Structures are given as structure tokens and as C-alpha cells.
Amino acid sequence: MWNNPKFLQRLEESGPNSNSNNDTKEEVAYVETPEDKENFDLVFKDVFLECSLKHGIVEDMVVCENTNPHLSGNVYIKFRDLDSAIAAQADFQDRYFDSRPVFAEFCGVRSFEDAICKMFRSNECDRGGLCNFMHVKQPSQGLLQELLKSQAKWSAERGAQRQRV
Ligand SMILES: [Zn+2]
Q: Residue 146 region, left (φ>0) first, then alpha (ψ -120 to 50), else beta?
């Protein structure tokens, strides 16, 4: 089993917290509305399901809410198998999201856990959005677990169907 994060997909977010032109240290205060949260969940679910249904088992997925240009809007997806990651990376190369091109590439992050800012989790990161560790934007509570559970069920059913053929 190949167990490293396989590819990185950069989505240029178009939401009000987008700040792709951030070359200053200023950060704009932003309050997420319920509609923003709902839209984020929909995009999160959509990306997860597309990757899972088209390319293979997704083991983890995180979205960065950092404001620095090299992390802002990045989506990291960890596939169980190398072939799935290769297929997904190729498939996303010619794609657009909200009229902006998607840049999908493999990344050297070996562990999401090591790349995630522990201080951000406890609201104590004094580097703010410019931090070089991942500031993970969380989907609604339980969404990722629900997607992983559905994927496991669907995958098991598909495996059972193949054995019957
Ligand atoms: Zn941080």
C-alpha cells in the first residue's frame, strides 16, 4: 500500500477570503456566513466524491485556508493507491474550477499531521494566514467521516459484486 499524500490540487478560491495577491502582511478580517460554510461543504463533498468515484479510495483530504500564495486554497488529497493518484493528477490537469485553471501536482508532504499547524488548531498561531504550516479549513463536523464511511460501504459492495461475476 502506498501511503503518502499523492497529489496536490490547487483551487483558486473565489470566496471573500481569497487573497491571491497577498504580498503584504495585512490580513482582512473575514466572518464566514452560514452560506459560505454550506458552499464550502458542497465543494469539499464534490471534490471528494469525484476523486473517490472516478479514481480510487481517498484516505484523507484537507483544504488550506492560509492566505500566503503558496498555500492559499490548496487541496491535498491522499489516495490509498499510487495508480489512483496518477489518474487523478492527469485528470485534473485540464480542468477549471470557477473559471480558473486547476493545477494538480504531486507533493512531497509525507504526513498531513506533520504539515498541519498545531497552534492554529488551538487558535494560537501568531503567524496568521502567512504561516507556512497548513491552516486547515474544516468542513462541517462529521462530513469527512461520513464521506469516508460511505466510500468504505460503496467499495465493499463493489468488491462483493466483482466476486459474484
Ligand atoms: Zn500556523
A: alpha
Q: How confident is the model at residue 138 (pLDDT cuts 50, 70, 90)?
A: very high
State the pLDDT at residue 29. Answer: 66
Work out whether the CA dihedral 107, 113, 114, 115 comes out positive or negative.
positive
Question: Could you tell me the distance, in angstroms and rounded to a whole number, from the CA of residue 72 to the centre of ligand 1?
Answer: 13
Amino acid at 129: G
Q: How far is the CA of 50 from the centre of ligand 1 (A)?
A: 29
Report how far ligand 1's centroid is from the alpha carbon of 158 (Å).
Answer: 40
Identify the CATH number of the domain in which residue 42 sits. Answer: 3.30.70.330
Domain span including residue 83:
7-164
2 located within any domain: no
Q: Please count the other Cβ atoms lying within 10 Å of the Cβ belonging to residue 2.
A: 12
Number of domains in the chain: 1
For residue 152, the CA-to-ligand 1 centroid distance in Å is 32
**71, 134 in Cβ contact below 8 A?**
yes
Examine residue 1 and state whether it is found in any structural domain, yes or no. no
Position 50 scores a pLDDT of: 95
